[in-house]
Amino acid sequence: MKREMLINVSQPEECRIAIVEDQVLEELYVERASIESFAGNIYKGRVVNLEPSIQAAFIDFGVGQNGFLHISDVEPQYFRQAGIDVDDPSLYENNNSGFEFSGKSRGHTGRPRNKPPIQDIFKRGDEVLVQVIKEGIGNKGPTLSTYISIPGRYLVLMPALGRVGVSRKIEDDADRVRLRDTLIDLDPPKGLGFIIRTAGQGRTKKELSRDLAYLVRLWKVIARRIQTVEGPGEIYEESDMIIRTIRDIFSDEVDTIYIDQEEAYERAREFLKLVMPRHVNCLQLYQGKDPLFHRYKIEDEILRIQKRKVPLKGGGSLVIDQTEALVAIDVNSGSFRTDGTAEDTAYQLNMVAAKEIARQLRLRDLGGVVVNDFIDMRKDRYRRNVERSLRDALSRDRARTRILRTSPFGLIEMTRQRIRPSLKRSVFTDCPCCSGRGVVKTPESLSIEVIRLLMLACQRKNVERITVRVNIEVSAYLNNNKRRELTELEETTNVPIQILGSEALFPEHLEIDCRDKAGRAVAMAVSA
To answer: Each residue of 494-524: pLDDT tens digit?
Structure first.
């Protein structure tokens, strides 16, 4: 299987990175220069408000929008001011962090279970060191945590952990023991914690040592800034998307990295020399005449993933609808047919759909609650196989996912970690005509509304004439279908009414302008 990483930065406003496997787009990352990203950054913040009812604090961390800090993301070191013994084992729940810990360091592997109220931990004006773990979406501010983590290529530095850990995704027991012993032999600084990432599997002592030295140097710089920077202010900024993606995604399975801009190419080359020197030759400066994404037919694929309907092989389709906190995915059979029974046809289609659903979630970067409506199947064996296929397809996803069993209605509910707004929310804005609803009122519906408002406006004192401005289709309906009612209203109230239509106005545009004898606007003019 040929795997390539394509980095398109020819336009300064946008950086796009595509992972292509055998000419099929499997992952896509887009970042706009106009949209500032805070995820991964570390700040010294200040508590500006406490909400005991939801056990959360709102933190000013210097970006113009307050962040949200829940009690579950408050580290035990902040409990001491509440008189809590942070070394009491009864405070801690079982470790569910995804890492297995080892070493001679003192501490606990879980998060406190019996937490004191957040109003006893913080007061307004308190300084707190926080990291952005999720970008703000809509009117919601960024989500913050006091559990600081700084990723390297093979290790993650967690300052407050104080121990050595190994990712549970590394399943080879012999390699787990070797990696753990190797990291302990490197004698990491006391008081700091380190996690060996999945990318560290099979790595040598020299490679781990280089990454450890890089993270220790970085932490010394951060520690000095913590002492000198006054809050609210930035302490550490996460690397740009090119460095971040190469650091987190690049592996021995990637054959080539193509970059279409020389400055970005040199920056990536310097990073590879520092962190992964033996892979420097994998990096290539793309100099073709055709744009990089057009050469690999990625632009066509990007257009397809913006659409609501996704065709499936053999017929069938997915219909994907996204709301503020939920994504609904409907599997439609369409023209999909097999030689077996209706049950077999549904099973085969669902197996195809499960793989495509996982791919679409990655490409569109959809998060939150996801409800998948598969074609109904009666056989329990078929249901379990579809669940297993969906889990296997999601296993390569870097975002955390959790999948439930098939419900009696044939739904598979799941959650997917949301770190930043989806690709759709980054690329598109709500339609000014329909405000994102996807529908607008018919000319008939808006005409009925106009008549109601005119009846109200004609009763206003001092109103001598009324002008209505609407879309041309609405004006045509009013002048043709509602002419009799308009005439009766004019005769009853002695107020002339003028209907003006324009193609330039939105379908739901409605403006009712009321004037007195002197031509002055009468208060409470109606507009929409």
So the answer is: 999 999 999 999 999 999 999 998 888 887 6
Distance CA 144, CA 45 (A): 10
Tens-place pLDDT, residues 13-55: 888 999 999 888 898 888 887 777 888 899 999 999 999 999 9
Domain span including residue 352: 306-427
* Longest Cα separation, the chain: 96
Which of 516, 505, 395, 421 shows the shortest CA–CA distance to 464? 516
> Per the structure block, which two tokens stand in for 439?
């529908």
> Locate tokens 């930043």: which residue?
420
Q: State which of 237, 253, 277 marks the end of a domain.
A: 237
Q: Supply the DSSP symbol for 375.
A: P
Q: How far apart are CA 419 and CA 131, in angstroms?
A: 13
pLDDT at 265: 93
Place of tokens 């339609």: 431
**Do residues 133 and 223 both lie within one domain?**
yes
- Asked if residue 347 is part of any domain, the answer here is yes
Lowest mean pLDDT among 62-66, 130-134, 335-339: 335-339
Residues 455, 528: Cα–Cα separation, whole Å: 17
| Cis status of the peptide bond prior to 507, with omega within 30 of 0 | no
pTM reported for the whole predicted model: 0.75
Written as six digits, the tokens of 22 are: 């055998």
Do 323 and 276 belong to one domain?
Answer: no
Q: How far apart are CA 419 and CA 143, in angstroms?
A: 9
Ramachandran category for residue 55: left, alpha or beta (phi over 0 → left; psi -120 to 50 → alpha): left
Per DSSP bridges, beta strands 42-51 and 24-32 are unpaired
CB atoms within 10 A of CB 117: 12
Q: Which amino acid is at 130?
A: V
